[in-house]
Amino acid sequence: TRGSSDLIVFANQYGGGATNTCWSVPVEIYNNLLINVGIGPQGTNFNALGEGIKTSGWLLKSHIKIFNNIIYGYGGQGASPRGALDIAPASNFAGTVEWFNNIIFDTDNVPYTNIGTGSDSKILVHSNNLYYSIINPTKTLPSWDSSPINSDPMFTNPQGNDFSISSSSPARDAGISVGITRDLYGNLRDLNNPSIGAIEYTQ
């Protein structure tokens, strides 16, 4: 299994925060904090416009589990901004995806996700994700997500880069158990009712 975990990415860059390669082994992406991915100055390459996490490539045959991440700010400048999760059309993606326990926080009124034609059926597990737009709180949620939560995650102090959640956050104890024992900062997770996102609520 290949994986990406326990990363803090202060991006402010052009292009995706996390993308793929030609893998066929299982992949896990969890406990990551991606901040302002793809919102930096526009370059000359119009092929990657600010995805938080992108899957693409007909040689990519992995089963990809994406869980307990925070994506705060995303979306490239230009004509075709992508979503926090970008999955290529089924004709250009041979893998499958699980998507759960993630917090997506939109700061620029960009769609939450960009799922290519036919690829919604490749998302085998999709639940307990929290979506919120500070610009447009009533923005349309992903229709394929079986139990999306539309609410402010109530981060402690995002302007000061503190993305822990408050005691009254709707993300607290709202995730599904996946067996990981620690969060981004090494705090123990509640194994029965973990918090959504990369940082477990601790008193």
Query: DSSP strand (E) fraction?
Result: 25-35%
* Overall radius of gyration: 16 Å
Mean pLDDT: 83
Order of helices and strands: EEEEEEEEEEEEEEEE
The end-to-end span amounts to 33 Å
Largest sheet: 6 strands, parallel
- Going across the major beta sheet, what is the strand order? 2-4-7-10-13-14
Shape: globular
Number of strands: 16
**What is the number of helical segments per DSSP (H or I, 4+ residues)?**
0
State the share of residues found in helices, binned by percent.
under 10%
Structural class: mainly beta
* Low-pLDDT residue intervals, each spanning 5 or more residues: 9-16
Account of the 3D structure:
- The structure is a single chain.
- Helix content is 0%, strand content 31%.
- With 203 residues, the chain is an all-beta fold.
- A hairpin with a 4-residue loop joins strand 15 and strand 16.
- 47% of the residues are buried.
